[in-house]
Structures are given as C-alpha cells and as structure tokens.
Amino acid sequence: MTQVEQSLSTKLEDPLSINSSTQAPRFKGGLQQYVFSPAFTPSPEKRASRGSAAAEASSPLDRSHLKRKASGPASTISPSSSPSPSPSPGCKKLKLKRSTSGYAPPSKYAHLINNLVDSLAQNLICIFIGVNPGLRTATAGHAYAHPSNLFWKLLHSSGCTPRRCRPEEDRDLPRLYSMGHTNIVTRPTKDASELSKAEMDAGVAVLEMKIAKYRPESVCIVGKGIWESIWRVRYGRGIRKDEFRYGWQDEGDRMGVISERDDIWEGARVFVATSTSGLAAGMRPPEKEAVWRVLGEWVEKRREERREGGEVKIEASDPIMDAGLEKTLEA
C-alpha cells in the first residue's frame, strides 16, 4: 500500500481526524451569528449614512405623490369633489358666441310669402310692437311662432293672459283679452340683424299712424332696438345709455298723439319690454320676467276695471286697409 492510500484509509476510519476547516458547521452553532447583541452600537459613519437615507425617504419632494387631503372616509368622496385640472398658462378659455347674420337685402327672401297679418282693434288695453316676422312666423302666418321665442310664455307668466296661448290664437287676442300685435318692419328675415337702421326708422311713421287710428291705452315695445329707432326719428340722434330704461316711459313719450283742431288725443302710454327672441341672450329669464311682470300687473288691473265697468265692444282690424296704409307711407 502506498503512502497516499494509507493516509486516505486512516482519515476514512477516523472522521474526527479531518481538518476542522472542512467540517460542516452544526445547526445550533450556525444560529449564533444572528443573535441580537445589546452591546452592539453602529459606528458614527453608519449612523450618519442611515440618517441621511431616512431624510431623503421622508422628503416632501419624493413623497408628494403619496399625499392625500383626507376629508372623510374614502367611500364618501364623490368625483365632483376632486379638483379640476388647472389650465396651462398658455391656454385661454374659449367662449361660445351666438352668430349673427348681418344685413340681408330684401332680394334674399323675396321668394318667401309673408302670411302674417296684424291683429288690431279699437280701444285695446295694449298693442305689442315687434321688430319683424321671422322665417317661421312668416311661413306659419302667426305671431312669434318659433318654439324658441318666449313671447307667449312671458305673456302668460307676467299676467297679461290668464293662460298660455298658442301662436295660432294671435288673431283672437283682441276679442279674448283686449290686446293686439303688429311689427315695425313687415318683411321677414332670419333675425333682426338682417334689417338696416333705415328700414327700422322708416317703420316708425307707420306705427304712429296705426296707434293713432286704433287708439289703445298703451303700447308695449318688444325689444330695445325698436325703441332706439323711435328715439332716433323723434330726436335725430341715438339714445344715450343713461337715457334708456325698461318699463314705463315718460308722459312726453306717448305714441300716436293727435293734436288736430277737431280731434285731440293724448296718445298711448309706452312700455319698453325685453326682446322675446331666443337669440337675445343679454338677460336671464328671471330678469326678463321681472320686467314683463310690471306690465302684466297693470294689464290685469285695467282688465278688471273694464270688466266691472261693462264689456267693451271690440271691432277687429282690417288687414287689407292696414296693408294699404303701409304701402302708401312707404311710397
């Protein structure tokens, strides 16, 4: 047996003779390295490094995405409570504006037949004066026929009529409620912006003659633009901002005044109301109703006084005669 074989045989017979460096550690001895030692204190270098790491971990910059404003349980937070994203400095909030048509010559709607006629009678409580018939109104032949127009709604909510009438009842207004309607311009357009100031001003003389003929107690100007035309014709200039107001006008502003030798009439009182067009968005519905309510209260009072004093005979107007009057003045 060689010396190497003899040495190997000796180690196999006596395991304890194997070098301790190659022997596997026992289980109990292996756990001793994990036992906590109270006497252990980290070095100043390690303590400083741990402090800096903790400060970085608690930095507001790094933890900003974890911050929440707790106003209550998570289940009670609604989507509307979350803040809306603020626009970037370069972005501007867009505002929607209603488009206006601009002036349109009479030839644009020459093919359209205007079926609307005045609804007038003698000694009415009030005559409503509009701008001109819209396309829907001219085709239907009934006043303020477009669904977006608030005329019939405001007429009812103000108290001028005890119920909400339909556009098809426009010719019955004199008989039912002692009220009537006409316009300052007869030709139909899409909206009032398609009319010129000259057309509006030319219609003032026609209005004065109609009012002088039928002699109502009052007239209601349905829209600021109509009163501006009347003012330009009367005073030769535009009305100033401090001169305009909604509601009842001064006694000197009466319309249809007659001062002839054998016929004197003081004229009709003037009430300026808001426009009822759906395109007129300058005032909110409650603000319009407040203006119209002043007129409605007066109309209710006058209607009751007339009822107590006896029924007043209403004679309907003659559309053919009125149309002839307008053509004569236009010529």
Polypeptide structure, described:
The protein is of the alpha/beta class. 26% of the residues are buried. Helices cover 36% and strands 8% of the residues. A hairpin with a 4-residue loop joins strand 5 (258-259) and strand 6 (264-265). The longest helix is centred in the last third of the chain and has 25 residues, at 285-309. The protein has helices at 3-13, 27-30, 44-57, 60-63, 135-140, 151-157, 173-177, 197-214, 224-235, 285-309, 319-330, and strands spanning 126-130, 179-183, 218-222, 247-248, 258-259, 264-265, 269-273.
Oligomer: single chain
- The number of helices is 11
> Would you tell me the overall average pLDDT?
80
DSSP, total strands: 7
Query: What does the main sheet amount to?
Result: 5 strands, mixed
Roughly what percent helix? 25-40%
Structural class: alpha/beta
Give the termini distance in whole angstroms: 150 Å
